[in-house]
Design goal:
By secondary structure, this protein is mainly beta. The chain has one domain: Electron Transport, Fmn-binding Protein, Chain A (Pnp Oxidase, Chain A, Roll), CATH 2.30.110. It is 12% helix and 35% strand. The strands form 4 sheets. The protein has a 7-stranded antiparallel β-sheet with strand order 3-2-6-9-10-5-4, covered by helices on one side. Strands 1-13-14 form a 3-stranded antiparallel β-sheet, with no helix packed on it. Strands 7-8 form a two-stranded antiparallel ribbon. It is globular. The mean pLDDT is 96. This is Flavin reductase family protein.
């Protein structure tokens, strides 16, 4: 089949998220001007550059109690800082609980029973037992097409790696099985890897 998104897909459910898969989940922690912590998962997330290391995530909705966006973007806009916590399969229920639409200022760490730890470089909390956490300074927030679509870019200024995930000097994702978002209500966990050598290597 072929369809133009502007005309509708004529299917029971939108297939777009099922096509662009799997998507890593950035569990974004931030802190508002009153010192209240926020934590929310975003599946439009990825690394975008090596040197300096940079990441992005996109927020595609808004809340009635936040001006035209969600808590994460509003907090980052004000503070200039955020932390990306990597989600493992074992934390799937806590991640899902933290996605609830709660009133602005409610701490999702507490709501979902997630232990927090202080970041080292930025003034923000992080998920204490995450396999990895990337402390970031916001470089820009770009508004894209759509009513409340924002892309947040950040430079990674601090990296936390859980010791049990380091094997032979490499960060081994099979030690924790990264959780990834698929379409609809579906997720997957990465448990198998294989290596390919590029022609120019």
């Amino acid at each position: 089949m072929f369809y133009r998104p502007a005309d509708g897909h004529r299917l029971p459910h939108n297939p777009f998220n099922a096509i662009v898969t799997p998507r890593p989940i950035g569990w974004i922690s931030s802190r508002d001007a009153q010192g209240r912590d926020n934590l929310g998962p975003y599946s439009f997330f990825n690394g975008v550059a090596y040197s300096p290391p940079q990441v992005m995530f996109a927020s595609t909705g808004s809340k009635a109690d936040v001006d035209g966006t969600k808590d994460s973007v509003a907090n980052i806009r004000a503070s200039g800082e955020f932390c990306v916590n990597i989600v493992e399969y074992a934390a799937r229920d806590a991640m899902n609980a933290s996605s609830a639409s709660l009133p602005h200022g409610v701490d999702e760490f507490a709501h979902a029973g997630i232990e927090k730890a202080a970041c080292d470089v930025i003034d923000c909390a992080r998920v204490a037992n995450a396999p990895a956490a990337l402390e970031c300074r916001m470089t820009q927030i770009v508004r894209i097409e759509g009513a409340a679509n924002f892309v947040v870019f950040g430079e990674v200024v601090g990296v936390h790696l859980r010791d049990d995930c380091l094997v032979g000097g490499r960060f081994d994702i099979t030690r924790y099985a990264p959780l990834s978002r698929l379409g609809y209500r579906d997720y997957t966990a990465v448990r198998e890897v294989f290596e390919m050598i590029r022609p120019d290597d």
